[in-house]
Amino acid sequence: MDFTEIIIEISPKDVDKAGDIANMVVPYGIYIEDYSTLEQEVLEIARIDIIDEELLNKDRDKALIHIYIPVDESPAEAIAFLSERYNSEAIPHIISTVTCLESDWINNWKQYFNPMKIGEKLLIRPVWRDDFDPKGRAVLNIDPGLAFGTGTHETTRLCMQALEKIIRPDDIVLDVGTGSGILSVAALLLGAKSAIGVDIDELAVKTANENAKLNNVSDRFTAVSGNLTDKINGKYRVILSNIVADAIISLSENIETFMEPDAVWIVSGIIDTRRNDVLNAVKGKFKIDSEYSENGWICFVFKI
């Protein structure tokens, strides 16, 4: 199988946390180069003090994380996912790709992105595909560009499955970490009154607004650039947070100030090993209304 290699350059001090985030993108492992403690590790593990000159010449001030994306998946979505989560964790990083030209990987994966049914009410349709039959489903037209959110990732699908059971006609929705805007648009197509999406990435904000236009809901959607809720005010009946466990834990400290009395908070992007961390953070403040899982990913619907 052909792959696109994504290389993430970070400080050695951030290797553990950055590696955990990188592992969220691929289920089959990552490769990390970190030579910051080379001599110490060689002595402890190999019990020798002679090290190849090529290794000694490696840069000790940076670490590299390598991940490999199959040709039928979008590297752009993976890069957006990584960058958003590293930014939210204040991890300085540089992301690059090898094995094919950027102009290739931006577009080549599109041939594998087919119209896709989600839950009972939605059909996601990439804008370059006309061969689809909605069969009564609401059609969500999507062009993710370089933002996270095509609907193919488990975290996004789980959120949309939860949404279709919860949305009411008068709902005002807050989407924290909106990415491509796919969840906000889904909420509006399912009947929500209005939605506001916030993302730390200005490119994601631009993409989200464009996807709202594609679906004729731009009059009911606003996207703003900000970190979590720092640019947000008001009260919402539905809050969406498809981000990472640590950001959800941080949000749990005051997210209830943005919630109407009967509001729900849908959280996703939680790998199963962090399930209890999230539950411990919300204990005493929120109760679980429902829980969804797929391939090691968890989505909760919380109520006050």
What does this structure look like?
- With 304 residues, the protein is α/β, with parallel strands linked by helices.
- The chain has helices at residues 15-23, 38-46, 53-56, 75-88, 102-108, 154-166, 182-189, 202-214, 245-251, 275-282; strands spanning 3-10, 31-34, 63-70, 94-98, 116-118, 122-126, 138-142, 172-176, 194-199, 221-225, 236-242, 259-271, 287-294, 297-303.
- The chain folds into two domains: 3-109, Alpha-Beta Plaits (2-Layer Sandwich), CATH 3.30.70.120; 119-303, Vaccinia Virus protein VP39 (Rossmann fold), CATH 3.40.50.
- It has ten helices and 14 strands.
- The strands form three sheets. The protein has a seven-stranded mixed sheet. The chain has a four-stranded antiparallel sheet with strand order 2-3-1-4, with helices on one face. A three-stranded mixed sheet has the order 5-6-7.
- Helix 7 links the parallel strand 8 and strand 9.
- The longest helix is centred in the first third of the chain and has 14 residues, at 75-88.
- The model is unreliable at 42-52 (pLDDT under 50).
